[in-house]
Amino acid sequence: MSVNRPEALPIGRRVAYWRGRRKLSQQVFADRLGKSKSWVDKVERGVRSLDKVSTLQDIAAVLRIDAAVLLGRGVQSAKVAERTVDVERIRAALSRYEIPLGRPAGRRPVLSVDRVAREVAHAWTTFQYARYPQLIDLVPDLLADTQRTHARDPVAGRVPLVEAYRITAALLVKLGDADLAWVAADRAMIAATGDRTLVAAAAVQLGQVLRESGRAREATSAMRAAAYRIAPPVIEYGTPPELSLCGTLLVQAALAAAHYGDDAAVAELLDEAADLAERVGDGHDHHRTGFGPTAVDLARTTAAVELGDARDAVTWHEKATQRDGWRSLPAEHRAAHLIDAAHAYLQAGDPINAGRVLVDAERIAPAEIRHRPAGSDLLAQVARDPNAPATVVQLADTLGVG
């Protein structure tokens, strides 16, 4: 067992670990507990013991974790507790209804459209680098700022508001809360209504949410409608941003069709998307889609996994990752794909390569394995295989999964 794992530490060190995770100084932490800074320092150094249940509960409340985590029930329990807290913070931000209820905005000023646009751009960059813990910290204020700016300037403020909801929905899908993600995606669609480009952009996240919610047939129907609505009348005259949105929505429709085994629809939709991708080319990120020929090939991998065609999935994966466009994709996109590729290798009875691509995913975007349930669960599955590479077993042990 690694000595760096939190549950392997003495309880005082666990307190220090979680205080650091919450970015609290010893003084601030002490103030919130109603204790002295010296008391906190002694607890963290192990000089003073924590033997009162009420004190443990107070500390856990300030640190926003379950008291069981402080008692060392394991990293996995800590991660679940932390993820629950993170989702609840976002739920609280989505539940404020500050503008419609006329609640006071607090001390934060109403920001200019340019300022919130920069906030949104920063949040998207944070997401695409898969820095999910940092993004969780950003989202509550981002939602509040974009809502206030939109209330003051409904026309110019609409784009950043829709984008803030898109980011929130995408993050919640990563955190495994499809129901709450649906709330964010729905608000993005409502805010975008009347602007075909914004509707198409918001629909990208709606498609992800519907698939994650088990509503694959509804996703296919909605994504087709959204794709054909944004499609230019003459494809040859379509702009790259239009074609990127249309193609991405067709990809979403295809992935949804794969969920319920419609091979013909999957092939048709992905071929359509591939035609558009050739016109857009690789190396672009119109409307945060990363759409291009490489993205379509990656989608073929995911669809093949869903359809149970392991050999095809592995072939498409190996082809796509040899493309020049592979490295131009955001870290989040590449690491998420590698998780799909690991599924393909497992289906093909190849735990060695499944483990290899998971280690690659963790190197490219650690949070895809460390903070995304789909990634950590798959790592645990691969690590349990008798033929799993030592590097995978070591990574699973380090992260406390298995």
UniProtKB/TrEMBL annotation:
Q: Where is the HTH cro/C1-type domain?
A: 15-70
Q: Which GO terms describe its molecular function?
A: DNA binding
**Entry-linked SUPFAM superfamilies:** lambda repressor-like DNA-binding domains, TPR-like
InterPro entries according to UniProt:
Cro/C1-type_HTH (IPR001387), Lambda_DNA-bd_dom_sf (IPR010982), TPR-like_helical_dom_sf (IPR011990)
Q: Which residues form a coiled coil?
A: none
This chain belongs to the protein called: Transcriptional regulator, contains XRE-family HTH domain
What is the species listed in this Swiss-Prot or TrEMBL entry? Micromonospora pallida
